[in-house]
Design a protein that fits this description.
single chain, 3 helices, alpha+beta, elongated
Amino acid sequence: MAPKNLDREARAARQRLRDYQARQQLHTSQTGRRARDNVIGGIVVTLVFALAIGAQLLYFTGGPGRTVASPTATAMPSALPSASPSVSPSAAGQSAPASSLAENRTWAGTMNLNGIPLGLELSGSTAPQGVANFISLSASGFYNGVTCHRLTTAVGFAVLQCGDPKGDGTGGPGYTFGPIENAPANNVYPAGTIAMARQGGNASSMGSQFFIVYKDTTIPSDSAGGYTVLGRVTSGLGSLISEVTDKGTANGGSDGKPAVPVTISSITLN
């Protein structure tokens, strides 16, 4: 074969080799890209799925779909029985009465709400500080004429909150106290329970505000614990339900002022 033909064949062979190598490199690059895209796609799908599951969990445990109380005064039905009493400078020297006032015994009495007599039974042995405070305020007439400013009607969260002289959830006796006493270990507050309201996460923020549980209610503990249970309503709860709580809230929602204004006329204990 002539030298020119040999050179032409050699050049053609080199070109075929280069073309083959280029095709191999392109194939390798496309294969790697597809593998990378598959991995990224899988990660994206996993993240979307995880976010969807997380959103559902948030909805049912801490968002608008939750039907149990929240430990702060923010979401559905606005809050747990929370109180934010302010201590005025003139009352700064006041303090809660000594727990010995509860005498380590059971106290019986009557609370009149809108003419409805509620029989009361308070345990001075299991909640001495809370009961001593309630006895002292009742005996001084502090609660006379004070309203019940808040009603919740959500399933599993049914309370009527009372005892704020300001009527807006910010009032108190001029002092606060703690600790939390006699809170249920299972977070269940049976119908008829009388317990102290407080600020979320603050065990020493109790004052004069309390709440009456008119249907079995579950209230999750927060960082401070549960809520001090003073005792229970022994009679009259049915009348309170039919005449007050069944009428709902003034705003038509599950948390607000009672549609029927409620006032404490007197509390007697012995």
